[in-house]
Amino acid sequence: MSVPSLGDRDRQIVIQRDNGATQSATGQPVANWQTLHTLWAAVRPLYGNEVYRSQRVTASQVRIFTTEYVAGITAKDRISYESKYWNITNIAELGRAEGLEITAEVVE
């Protein structure tokens, strides 16, 4: 797949990394997500479906985010987009460091 032109990358996403848990006032662990990169991306849906989990139906959505190449992003990171958090499931380098194709899923 070719890297989308700058004009096609019209959605802003934020790549975040968990810097380790901190404790809430009640002593419960709380994830400490830090912004790594703010990037422009082309976003396209891969699929969406409904899944039966924990005795209820939830919507599962998968998107492909195509961005400029940035080294160091891993599947342990997440994407913040459209007021939702997307768990990264796959990262593919496009060309020779021409871009990234990041597949991510959100469960509502």
Topology:
Layout lengths: L10 E8 L3 E2 L5 E2 L2 E21 L2 E12 L10 E4 L2 E11 L4 E9 L1
Antiparallel strand pairs: 1-4, 1-6, 2-3, 4-5, 5-8, 6-7, 7-8
For the secondary structure, the number of strands is 8
Strand order of the largest sheet: 1-4-5-8-7-6
Overall pLDDT score: 87
What is the 3D form?
Answer: globular
Q: Which runs of at least 5 residues are low in confidence (pLDDT < 50)? A: none
Give the helix level as a range of percent.
Answer: under 10%
Percentage of residues in strands: over 45%
Head-to-tail CA distance between termini: 29 Å
Radius of gyration based on Cα positions? 15 Å
Major sheet attributes: 6 strands, antiparallel, barrel
Could you characterize what this model shows?
With 108 residues, this protein is mostly beta strands. The protein is 0% helix and 64% strand. The protein is built from no helices and eight strands. The strands form two sheets. It has a six-stranded antiparallel barrel with strand order 1-4-5-8-7-6. The chain has a two-stranded antiparallel sheet with strand order 2-3. A hairpin with a 2-residue loop joins strand 6 and strand 7 (84-94). It is globular. The protein starts with 10 loop residues before the first strand and ends with a strand. The mean pLDDT is 87.
